Amino acid sequence: MKLCVFDFDSTLMDGETIDFLAKELGLIKEVSAITEQAMQGKLDFFESLTTRVGLLKGLNLRKVTHVCENLPYMPGAKETIEGLKKAGYKVVVFSGGFRNATSYAKNILGFDADFANILHVRDEHLSGMVGGDMMFNFSKGDMLKRVQALLGVRIEDTIAVGDGANDLSMFEHAGKRVAFCAKPILKEAANIVIDEKDLRNLLKSI
Q1: C or N terminus of the chain, fewer CB within 10 Å?
Q2: Which residues form the catalytic set?
Q3: pLDDT by residue (tens digit) across 57-69?
């Protein structure tokens, strides 16, 4: 058994889901500035996530769904996942973003499972609260260890692909550590670096 784990935002998807949501409220500058600091590793992920989601309070759930179902996927994402699965990999997504986006993308891109956070809803509007699988800096590494144990996958048979500081923890448990159009903090920990926005380069590198 072989395993490939992808980050979602700015890896399988071209952008940050939370920034697209913030745009609906005219708050993209405020939210994207916090996102950038978090991905650079300059802010605690939990604190940055809860702060950003708090700014989304009041956004209508219909708008959330519309945004999450119309996100731009990274060039080559679908073809790369298809190629990995043909090569015998289970393909999983770990996202510090939201299941509203990843569960929809699962049917489009064809990955096997997704672990992400959930936006709390009250009266068909976002309450400003969030919970879920990927709330902390260590969450992706912790989940990767559990998935490896469940599937019987060795570290040397694991690929982890990401772009930001909250992907560092899963790099600790992967033989191939792919920094995709990534922040400097992640490139330093990678053994494969891809700087072109085309995920098909991953298939050439493994």
Answers
A1: N
A2: 7, 9
A3: 999 999 999 999 9
Q: Please, are residues 181 and 131 in contact by the beta-carbon 8 Å criterion?
A: no
The tens digit of pLDDT for each residue in 9-32 reads: 999 999 999 999 999 999 999 999
Residue ranges of domains in the chain: 2-205
User: Cα 113 vs. chain centroid, distance in angstroms?
Assistant: 12
Q: Find the helix or strand (DSSP H, E) in which 58 lies.
A: none
Helices and strands (DSSP H and E) totals, the chain: 10, 7
Kindly state the tokens that stand for 168.
């560092």
CATH fold label, 2-205: Rossmann fold (3.40.50)
The verdict on pTM exceeding 0.85 is yes
In 20-88 the beta strands, taken as DSSP E runs, fall at none
What is the spatial distance between Cα 156 and Cα 55, in angstroms, rounded to a whole number?
41
